[in-house]
Amino acid sequence: MNVDTTSPDAVASGAAPASGVAAASADTDPLALESQLCFALAVASRTVIDAYRSELEPLNLTHPQYLLMLALWEHGTLSLSGLGELLMLEAATLSPMAKRLERVGYVRRTRNPDDERQLAIELTEEGRTLRERAKQVPLAMMQKFQMTPDDIARLRDAVSGVTAAAAAH
Question: What pTM did the predictor assign?
């Protein structure tokens, strides 16, 4: 039986290549795929974001839109640049996202009358009401991942530490 060693599941399980040649051990090869932090984080990111999809679809949100809504629920009205700083995203990425959220009725975009270059994003009543429905998302994700709140906090803190260290260089 041939095993697909190119899939993330096969790599994560340590499956031997289909040709029967043993893969280099992460212990002996510093370039072994399974020893790379970047690979583990990339696969984790795609997999985790995909796992959120089933929880966010009933809210009519994508994962990036969910993050934008989380920022607004926590901080209230924000400028587009303020959202960009919080979410570490460019205005060119956030602007179409805010437009879509405005079309579905969750936010309102308004220009600052004193400086037309500044765009404020604020929650509508529907957007504020959505927060109650969204409260189930973190609980559902903990169940999916079979993690406790402490597990989530430790993992988040470790990943945040890696992110901060990488951003410092």
Answer: 0.80
pLDDT digits (tens, 9 = 90+) for 86-123: 999 999 999 999 999 999 999 999 997 778 888 999 99
Residue 123 to residue 135: CA distance in whole angstroms: 16
Q: Angle at CA 40, nearest 5°, toward 39 and 44? A: 115
Q: φ, ψ for residue 116 (rounded to 5)?
A: -60, -15
User: Of 43, 103, 70, 50, which is closest to residue 83 (Cα–Cα)?
Assistant: 70
All domains in the chain, ordered by first residue = 36-164 (1.10.10.10)
Q: What is the pLDDT of residues 120-150, one digit of tens each?
A: 999 999 999 999 999 999 999 999 999 999 9
